[in-house]
Write a structure and sequence with these properties.
The protein has helices spanning 3-20, 36-43, 90-93, 95-101, 151-156, 158-164, 166-188; strands at 56-69, 72-79, 82-89, 109-118, 124-135, 198-201, 203-205, 209-211, 221-226, 231-240, 253-257, 270-271, 277-279, 282-286, 298-303, 306-311, 313-317, 321-326, 333-336, 352-355. The strands form five sheets. Strands 1-2-3-5-4 form a five-stranded mixed β-barrel. It has a five-stranded mixed beta sheet with strand order 16-15-19-6-20, with no helix packed on it. Strands 7-14-18-17 form a four-stranded antiparallel beta sheet, with no helix packed on it. It has four domains: 3-135, Nucleic acid-binding proteins (OB fold (Dihydrolipoamide Acetyltransferase, E2P)); 151-188; 198-205 and 282-355, conserved putative lor/sdh protein from methanococcus maripaludis s2 fold; 213-275, Efflux pump adaptor protein, beta barrel domain (Elongation Factor Tu (Ef-tu), domain 3, Beta Barrel), CATH 2.40.30. It is flat, with a radius of gyration of 28 Å. A hairpin with a 3-residue loop joins strand 17 and strand 18 (321-326). With 357 residues, it is an alpha+beta fold. The protein starts with a helix and ends with a strand.
């Protein structure tokens, strides 16, 4: 049994132990009085004397560090990218709550109620008086000192990147605030946000669009690599897409596998390697230029300054582009985006928004 599989089994066993004590592992509501960022912002500068009389708080967060010391323990709760230390003492929370706390793992979500104080080292902390278990994490968290360093994992499992790397979270928060601020300023000045059509010049290119070869078919056996279990599991192709999404280098594939021992759980990432073919020199346009599907597919082209509906035959398709096999010629301009209100013969002034070659 691999280390990851052993850890998973241990956490599943802890869930059963918690349920035996009358606690739910998932699905509890928790009303909080403060967030971790609020507490740090308001009380970080205050001394121990200024925290008297007691400042009572009720917060929830994810456990990121945990250190047991006999009948007491220290841990750090993380919420919205900020961390706050908690101090849990058996005499303060009670025997049952302390027994529950000894079952928690890094990554679990708990609720804490108590008062603020400073430790001997001067760190702002919560002296816990009540604990509530909110959610169990089954898979291991990234290593605490270095965060999540694997680039592919960071992009494929962005939620894990946001948990483990505060700097990544700050980038996303800053970007969201910037876009929101620009939108509010423009709206305050009477601007309206709309989606408008754009023109795109169709050009031939060496398109990296992959067609699944005929040797891959439903019913074929293959192996899936499950990194969380550090195992390779045999499976059978149930359904498979016809094209590869180049934006993510992924392809929609359904593979049936046996899970008699219940080791596989929702959320586990599995990968399989398929050998695909590549096609070159195809004429493509953005997907947003296409109206209709199958034999009804058409584009709005601009010919001699007028809009013209042109039936097209589609070929391979990626997440962003589609191959045009018939209907358009190299260099013709098509309207990309919303086509509402366009009519055959309508005069337009071409202005190319973007082109690829």
């Amino acid at each position: 049994m691999s280390l990851e599989d052993d850890l998973l089994q241990q956490r599943l066993a802890r869930i059963r132990e918690m349920e035996a004590l009358g606690h739910r592992a998932y699905g509890r509501r928790y009303d909080f009085s403060h967030t971790v960022p609020d507490i740090l912002s308001e009380y970080t500068a205050k001394t121990a004397e200024e925290l008297v009389p007691e400042v009572r708080v009720r917060v929830a967060g994810r456990l990121m560090t945990l250190r047991h010391m006999g009948k007491a323990a220290f841990a750090h709760l993380q919420q919205n990218g900020e961390r706050l230390q908690i101090y849990v003492k058996k005499d303060a929370v009670g025997e049952d709550a302390f027994a529950l706390f000894k079952m928690v793992d890094i990554g679990d979500i708990i609720g804490v109620e108590g008062y603020l104080f400073r430790t001997r080292t001067g760190e702002l902390s919560i002296h816990a008086e009540k604990l509530e278990f909110l959610s169990k994490t089954l898979l291991s968290m990234p290593e605490k000192w270095h965060g999540l360093e694997d680039v592919e994992t960071r992009f494929r499992q962005r939620y894990l990147d946001l948990i483990a790397n505060p700097e990544s979270r700050k980038v996303f928060v800053t970007r969201a605030k910037l876009i929101s601020s620009l939108r509010r300023q423009l709206e305050a000045r009477g601007f309206i946000e709309v989606e408008t059509p754009a023109l795109f010049k169709s050009t031939p290119e060496g398109a990296r669009e992959y067609l699944v070869p005929s040797r891959i078919h439903p019913g074929q056996t293959l192996n899936l690599r499950v990194s969380a279990l550090n195992e390779t599991i045999p499976g059978r192709v149930a359904r498979i897409a016809g094209t590869l999404q180049m934006a993510t280098r992924t392809m929609d594939t359904q593979v049936d596998v046996s899970n008699a021992n219940l080791k596989l759980i929702p959320g586990m990432y599995a990968e399989v390697t398929l050998n695909l073919d590549e096609r070159h020199g195809v004429l493509t346009v953005p997907l947003d230029a296409i109206e209709g599907t199958g034999t009804a597919a058409h584009v709005y082209a601009v010919r001699e300054g007028k809009v013209q509906t042109v039936p097209v035959t589609l070929g391979l398709e990626t997440a962003q582009k589609v191959e045009i096999r018939n209907g358009l010629q190299e260099g013709e301009m098509v309207i990309v985006g919303r086509h509402a209100g366009l009519q055959n013969g309508q005069k337009v002034t071409p202005k190319v928004q973007g082109a690829e070659g």
